[in-house]
Amino acid sequence: MNVTIDFGGTNIKVGLVQDGKLLAKSSIPAWSDSGLLARLSDSARSVRELLAEVGAELSQCVGIGIALPGIVDSRRKTLTSINEKYTDAIGFDFSRWAKEEFGLPIAVENDARAALIGEAAYGAAQGEKDAVLIIFGTGIGTAALMDGQVLRGRHHQAGILGGHLSTDLEGEPCACGNVGCVEAQASHWAIPIRASKLPGFANSSLANDREWGYEAVIKASADGDVFASELLEDLIRHWSAGIVNLVHAYDPEVVLLSGGLMKSSELLLPRLQERVGALAWTPWGKPRFAVAEDPEISALLGMSFMAEQAAAVSGAEG
Ligand SMILES: [Zn+2]
């Protein structure tokens, strides 16, 4: 059994995983603006509560895996860079914390990479050797698997910055420093900012919403709101461009989609697939599209897989 923690921007998810199956999970608020280190003791308490819930002891756990939303050095097991939230965790020694708190070896990884590892080991990309994952969450996270290896790269950023590939050179400034990133054009946090500058917004039902994003656009469009329908068309162009960029970069067999936007996968999947199929240069055929079964837990499953490996290494080192 492994302990897994996924530090999201809104919630911290804690899970116990055995053989690729989630035994129990809980969630606590992240309060990410106040940093990550302040949430470690509550996270550890959640782990102990979960263990009690399933009637297990810490001594039955093999390792711990932590997923983080930022650039992660999985070898040194620390965060190297992150936008705005959780900045206090940069350079933090997670190994030492896990040893002192739980006496367990630890694995640390970027959350999108963790999700792809989880999906490739146990989920919708099981058995695949070449895949890209795009998570349409608050932002847009990505990861790539080539020839069975998840890409990490010289500076730990290979594959994970697909949300920061531009889809509009005249587009919105992004928190990453670039301009017109698909995340700054078409992610949940960015949609209201960009939409409010477009002509016709004031007449749309969306103008009355205070906090809105993916779901509101899709619903308003279905309700016949003309502005929302045009906005949705525009978003599909950006999302498709983002996927085409990944297909051209990483040559995947499978395009795996995840995140809150995929609640509308029935509506979106055929349209994304059609547009990507028409635009991507793939003379060998067309990549298969798949949707993560349970986006809430793929990173936890991936971190359990990595914790297993970390424990094996730690055992071999004695
Ligand atoms: Zn960006």
UniProtKB/TrEMBL annotation:
Belongs to the ROK (NagC/XylR) family. This is ROK family protein. It comes from the Bacteria. Pfam families: ROK. InterPro entries: ATPase_NBD (IPR043129), ROK (IPR000600).
